[in-house]
């Protein structure tokens, strides 16, 4: 049993880690997509700037080509008519043509470089866009997969947690059974067994006194009758505690009413039992379940609620019996409390109530909040089957 609990804890841990790492993976893919998007954006900006530069340069080259052509023409005219020009003029025209030629060559080189760079950027952009597209597709796919997976996994981990709690409940039930046996044994040992031993001694005394002192014998017999009567009471109490026979003898509703009355006497909490509809006697297992759940609800009210008033409403419909046990006490945070259930500290009362009701295909619900009292509501099909 212990080994199983450890295994379930371990599986639970593995499931949690798996969901965590899937989530992390999703974040990483998201990061990749994000940086691909940024890369595309910056390449586009760079490309835009480059295109502007290229078009400026093309215009400059155009202008320069015309200037250079003119300078060559001028040089030709001067060389043909060099008699009309000074040496200074010739040198100037020559230098000018040569400078323009060099400048043009440089600009053309620059233009070629820029165009190459533009081509390079365009290729990079195409590749980055491909990565981006892939990453975006992956983000969507992983998102869908994750939704399926983490949905199922967390369902599974809830189921496992539920199983775990049921296991704990099983242990608790076994422990409670053992304690109950010990208690009954102790009750019989301390009560009736002791008394019967006493009875044996006293009858022996009577035997001996019979011929000597008839009056003394009468007293002893009276004494004996009291002891036997007390023992009978003790035995009846032990039997009642084991199983409220009165359900069979008195019927369910009178038993609940009597239990409510005794509870009220013992605790000072006012109990009202309200019966709605025609209550018919049901299968014994249904009646005993209803009684045990009401009993645990009242136990909790006594132990925890600080209530002044309790109402037990028992409503019979065609197919179901619906019971509401409502108190006006301090209330509690149901979800939080149920999470705290463990073997050491207990808190199996509610779990046990739910388990009993669900075993008979019933429904169980607690409505409570701090300061607003508590209602335990449960519904069980009368014939013990689903409707
Ligand atoms: N009527 C109520 N009013 C206020 N608090 C309640 C009421 N019923 C239950 N609780 C709270 O819910 C917790 C769980 O109840 P549950 O019956 O499961 O366990 P328990 O009574 O503490 O222990 P056990 O029943 O195992 O002896 C209680 O400890 C208490 O804090
Ligand atoms: Mg309890």
TrEMBL record:
Asked if S-adenosyl-L-methionine is a keyword of the record, the answer is: no
Q: Which SUPFAM superfamilies does the annotation name?
A: ATPase domain of HSP90 chaperone/DNA topoisomerase II/histidine kinase (SSF55874)
**Keyword Kinase belongs to the record:** yes
Protein name as it appears in the record: histidine kinase
Q: Which InterPro entries match?
A: DegS (IPR008595), HATPase_C_sf (IPR036890), HATPase_dom (IPR003594), His_kinase_dom (IPR005467), Sensor_HK_TwoCompSys (IPR050482), Sig_transdc_His_kin_sub3_dim/P (IPR011712), Sig_transdc_His_kinase_DegS (IPR016381)
The coiled-coil regions, if any, are 33-67, 111-138
Q: Which keywords are on file for this protein?
A: Coiled coil, Kinase, Transferase, Two-component regulatory system
GO MF, one example:
phosphorelay sensor kinase activity
Which Enzyme Commission numbers does its entry carry? 2.7.13.3
Matching Gene3D superfamilies: 1.20.5.1930, Histidine kinase-like ATPase, C-terminal domain
| Signal sequence interval, chain numbering | none
């Amino acid at each position: 049993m212990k080994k199983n609990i450890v295994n379930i804890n371990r599986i639970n841990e593995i499931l949690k880690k798996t969901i965590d790492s899937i989530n992390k993976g999703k974040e990483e893919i998201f990061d990749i997509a994000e940086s691909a998007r940024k890369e595309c954006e910056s390449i586009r900006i760079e490309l835009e700037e480059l295109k502007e530069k290229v078009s400026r340069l093309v215009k400059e080259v155009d202008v320069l080509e015309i200037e250079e052509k003119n300078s060559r023409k001028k040089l030709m005219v001067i060389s043909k008519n060099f008699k009309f020009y000074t040496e200074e003029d010739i040198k100037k025209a020559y230098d000018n043509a040569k400078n323009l030629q060099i400048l043009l060559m440089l600009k053309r080189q620059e233009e070629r470089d820029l165009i190459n760079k533009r081509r390079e950027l365009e290729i990079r952009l195409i590749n980055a866009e491909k990565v981006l597209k892939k990453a975006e597709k992956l983000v969507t796919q992983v998102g869908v997969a994750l939704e399926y997976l983490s949905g199922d996994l967390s369902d599974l981990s809830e189921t496992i947690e539920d199983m775990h709690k049921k296991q704990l409940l099983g242990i608790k039930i076994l422990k409670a059974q053992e304690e109950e046996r010990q208690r009954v044994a102790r009750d019989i040992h301390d009560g009736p067994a002791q008394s019967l031993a006493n009875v044996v001694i006293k009858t022996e005394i009577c035997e001996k006194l019979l011929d000597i002192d008839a009056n003394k014998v009468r007293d002893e017999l009276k004494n004996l009758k009291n002891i036997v009567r007390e023992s009978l009471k003790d035995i009846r109490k032990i039997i009642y505690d084991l199983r409220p026979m009165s359900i069979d003898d008195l019927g369910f509703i009178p038993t609940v009413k009597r239990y409510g009355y005794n509870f009220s006497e013992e605790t000072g909490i006012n109990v009202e039992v309200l019966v709605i509809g025609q209550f018919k006697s049901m299968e014994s297992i249904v009646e005993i379940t209803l009684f045990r759940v009401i009993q645990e609800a009242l136990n909790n009210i006594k132990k925890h609620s600080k209530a002044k008033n309790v109402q037990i409403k028992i409503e019979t419909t065609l197919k179901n019996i619906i019971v509401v046990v409502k108190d006006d006490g301090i209330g509690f945070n149901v979800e939080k409390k149920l999470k705290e259930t463990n073997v050491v500290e207990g808190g199996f009362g509610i779990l046990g109530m739910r388990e009993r009701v669900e075993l008979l295909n019933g429904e169980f619900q607690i409505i409570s909040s701090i300061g607003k009292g508590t209602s335990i509501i449960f519904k069980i099909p009368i014939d013990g089957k689903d409707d």
